[in-house]
Amino acid sequence: ARRSDGGGIVVIGLGRFGCHLAASLTRMDREVLAVDRNPDQVQRFSAQLDRVVQADATEDGALRQLGVTSFGRAVVAIGASVEASVLTVLALVELGVPQIWARATSQKHAKILSSVGAHHVIFPEAETGERVAHLIVSRLLDFIEFDDDFAIATVRVPESLVGRTLLDLRPEERSGVRVIGAKAPGERFRFASDDTALAQGGLLVVEGGIDQVQRFAGRR
Ligand code: ATP
Ligand code: ATP
């Protein structure tokens, strides 16, 4: 049985983005109510998702009937139609849904969503594009960026540093980054310490400014 303690999430719009989101939440054992106005989409996802209903989400009466007010969170995953996306957010605001996430497809769209009352605006194409750009030009395997100037990244041990220890390398002084975890091939990640030796083919978890982290990992 799924959680249904207000931990449930309404996902509106089962396009490419919305269907992956709804499927991921379902795998995370969350109660998901998926809504799409197109009966073909509803039919398509009815086997994969627990509750998929056909409704026009721009109508607050329809949302109310579906019991949307008992959900703590809603995600408006509609992208192409700015009008449908904005009207849906507005309907959710009027119903008093506590946490509304909305997907924007442009900066202007994002601005409108915030001003009508979306609590979180996401911009998946822009975010993924930027993220993949970083991954392509650098040797970062994965990273999270905070406030545009701080990052935590997983990087391959740079070839030039194999065999050295952190005590010997002093990455904080020399590169402005701190190595916080290390993993030798076939082993698990461990906290890094002064005597951590950088293994050939190993991985490191590094934190610091995004530029410093990129420089430490080495350009491609
Ligand atoms: P994606 O990139 O995620 O595929 P998209 O921008 O190509 O999305 P959209 O036109 O935004 O596609 O549609 C996403 C889904 O939202 C579609 O399945 C569509 O039927 C649904 N949708 C659009 N408007 C509404 C609405 N008013 N109520 C419910 N669902 C809607
Ligand atoms: P996105 O989700 O990134 O907006 P999309 O799936 O909605 O992409 P696509 O039809 O894939 O849109 O087109 C993305 C861009 O690629 C368009 O600007 C299109 O003109 C361009 N494009 C499509 N096919 C080709 C091609 N064969 N050669 C060069 N450019 C192309």
From TrEMBL:
Annotated RCK N-terminal domain residues: 6-122
InterPro entries to which the protein is assigned, alphabetical: NAD(P)-bd_dom_sf, RCK_C, RCK_C_sf, RCK_N, Trk_Ktr_HKT_K-transport
Pfam families: TrkA_C, TrkA_N
UniProt xrefs under Gene3D superfamilies: NAD(P)-binding Rossmann-like Domain, Regulator of K+ conductance, C-terminal domain
Domain RCK C-terminal: 138-220
PANTHER family: KTR SYSTEM POTASSIUM UPTAKE PROTEIN C, POTASSIUM CHANNEL PROTEIN 2-RELATED-RELATED
Stated name of the protein: TrkA family potassium uptake protein
